[in-house]
């Protein structure tokens, strides 16, 4: 049963409020894409095909065919267990009291490119820079 227009508006308002109040939580709560069954079927076909190539390579005393079979098997298993690519959609800014979305402001210590620094290595680099500024060499 689809939602009424009023329910859709209320849901969108709640979503905007959550995004403006706690963008990190909103990003965490966004649904992640599930791995499809087709991914596992393709990986299974790759593993079985690689195994057949490996067996035929061993039976025909062809090491090249055996190596190719092993690589195909390994690629199939890696494909099955690798995470699908995440979409880059998420909070696009801050929602004001009128419901207008404004882009987030870049931080002053954002680096040379103007984009905010994120990630583990960037945090380590920032800590390193702060330590050097405080009294390092």
UniProtKB/TrEMBL annotation:
Endoplasmic reticulum among keywords: no
Keywords, A to Z, come to: Membrane, Transmembrane, Transmembrane helix
Question: Which segments carry the region annotation Disordered?
Answer: 86-137
Instruction: Quote the InterPro entries the UniProt record gives.
Output: DUF3040
Q: Which domain of life is it from?
A: Bacteria
What transmembrane ranges does the database entry give? 40-58, 64-81
* Comp. bias (Basic and acidic residues): 123-137
Name recorded for this polypeptide = DUF3040 domain-containing protein
Lineage, top ranks: Bacteria, Bacillati, Actinomycetota, Actinomycetes, Micrococcales
């Amino acid at each position: 049963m689809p939602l009424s227009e009023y329910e859709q508006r209320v849901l969108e308002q709640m979503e905007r409020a959550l995004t403006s109040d706690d963008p990190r939580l909103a990003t965490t709560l966004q649904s992640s894409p599930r791995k499809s069954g087709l991914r596992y079927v393709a990986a299974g076909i790759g593993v079985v095909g690689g195994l057949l190539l490996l067996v035929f390579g061993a039976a025909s005393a062809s090491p090249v065919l055996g190596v190719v079979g092993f690589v195909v098997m390994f690629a199939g298993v890696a494909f099955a267990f690798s995470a699908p690519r995440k979409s880059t959609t998420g909070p696009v800014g801050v929602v004001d009291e009128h419901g207008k979305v404004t882009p987030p402001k870049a931080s002053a210590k954002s680096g040379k490119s103007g984009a905010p620094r994120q990630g583990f290595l960037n945090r380590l680099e920032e800590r390193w820079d702060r330590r050097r500024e405080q009294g390092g060499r």
